[in-house]
Specification:
By secondary structure, the chain is of the alpha/beta class. Helix content is 43%, strand content 12%.
Length: 243
């Protein structure tokens, strides 16, 4: 998968037809500023694909900024995304630029977008409509040039029906949908990925090269991989350390 024109997808280890289809879609939209919503179970490589989209875009020499909307406390997330002015709340001793400003001219990857609380969904929608943001406790708008790529492991359609995710925001984010297949649907990639991670972690942990026995390969192929590629990577890393 690594001819001279395909460096952008080099981190994506696959020979799966389902993944190749997703990568072909990604390649078609990468050079545009179209918003992409990547969905799929945890551990399927959504951030890797988002980064590949950025690397194939005209913004590749500019920032790629990641925000995990589920990992930042709700009361800090607005400031993290949009920044704040000095003195806007207790502890705000200096002006802070938010992730939108830091991603100016580049790509902002909003991971776990389904965890975004309704007030911030409104602010994000407003940005998508007029390309402007406002720092916390200011009414001075700032124009920002950012491409948005979002990802979720939630069923956002169900969240819309339950009125926890805005329908208008969903359709603005989902200009191009990319649905990542779980590892159990990419069985042809399991051994390929395992061998890749074996080589990587043998080098990282300064171990002699290790190969998979036929029994080990059989066990890997039988496992359902609920944690997907991340689970496989963690297993191989642990196995290398303990072997």
């Amino acid at each position: 998968f690594a001819d001279s024109g395909e460096e952008w997808r080099a981190p994506i280890i696959t020979r799966s037809a389902a993944m190749e289809e997703r990568l072909a879609q990604a390649h078609m939209v990468a050079g545009t500023d179209a918003r992409v919503l990547i969905s799929g179970e945890s551990g399927t490589g959504k951030e890797v694909v988002a980064h590949a989209l950025h690397e194939q875009s005209q913004r590749k020499n500019n920032p790629f900024v990641v925000v995990n909307c589920g990992a930042i406390p709700e009361n800090l997330l607005e400031s993290e995304l949009f920044g704040h002015e000095k003195g806007s709340f207790t502890g705000a001793h200096v002006q802070k630029r938010g992730k939108f400003e830091l991603a100016h001219t580049g790509t902002l990857f909003l991971d776990e977008i389904g965890e975004l609380v309704p007030p911030l969904q409104v602010k994000l929608l407003r940005f998508l409509q007029d390309r402007r943001i406002e720092r916390v406790r200011t009414t001075q708008p700032l124009e920002v040039d950012v491409r948005i790529v979002a990802a979720t492991n939630r069923d956002l359609k169900r969240d819309m029906e339950n009125h926890v995710f805005r329908e208008d925001l969903y359709y603005r984010l989902r200009v191009v949908p990319l649905d990542m297949p779980p590892l159990r649907a990419r069985k042809e990639d399991i051994i390929l990925l395992a061998q890749y991670f074996l080589k990587k972690y043998c080098q990282e942990h300064r171990k002699q090269p290790i190969t998979l026995s036929p029994e080990a390969e059989g066990a890997l192929l039988m496992h359902p991989w609920p944690g997907n590629v991340r689970e496989l990577e963690n297993l191989i890393s642990r196995s290398v350390v303990l072997s």
